[in-house]
Amino acid sequence: MPKSDQQLIAECLRGQTHVFGDLVLRYQDRLYHMLVHVLGSAEDAREVAQDAFVSAFRKLHTFQGRSAFYSWLFRIAMNSAVSRQRKNSRVPVSIEAVRNSSGLEPIDPHPEARPDFSMEAQERQAAVRTALADLPEEFRTVLILKEMDDMKYEEIAEIVGCPIGTVRSRIHRARAELKNRLVALMHEPVEE
Question: Residue ranges per domain, the chain?
């Protein structure tokens, strides 16, 4: 039976620092994929994830266990991502560049679907990625945590450091904004 996060952290703090690698293995993929969606770049996501794990290792003694380790780690990663974005302040990347750098290419899971299904699916996914990338960060982050990582409102509030009511409001506004942007991008009504 695998050890819990708390057990691994306790062992690491007692000097068995190699067990931190188990925490990295447990959460690296989840953290990386969330950061790709938040940052829009596989390269930036890799660097921020690496920075987050290094920072978490250095600050592990400050982890008090009041929240899940992943929530704490994700908050560190988000702080790093925000710092990186402020420092870079670069122009948004095209959707083609995001697709090429992230490796997230839509795949048609139903080969029996009509011939144009794959192209339409790609267009819809590209529109969603574009619309999502255009959302303000405060809306994009909470929406990704809720919809893609299936986090509870309480966890999201802890990660982003704001009240649950604010999280609910941001998610509601993010969904409305995303819908409006999709309608504009696709020039057709989006079904609810």
Answer: 1-94, 106-192
- What class does CATH assign to 1-94? mainly alpha
Helix, strand, coil fractions of the chain, as percent rounded to 5: 75, 0, 25
| CATH class entry, domain 106-192 | mainly alpha
pTM greater than the 0.70 cutoff: no
Domains 1-94 and 106-192 in one fold: no
Helix (H) or strand (E) holding 21: helix 20-39
Q: What is the pLDDT of residues 55-106, one digit of tens each?
A: 999 999 998 888 889 889 988 998 888 777 777 655 555 556 655 655 655 4
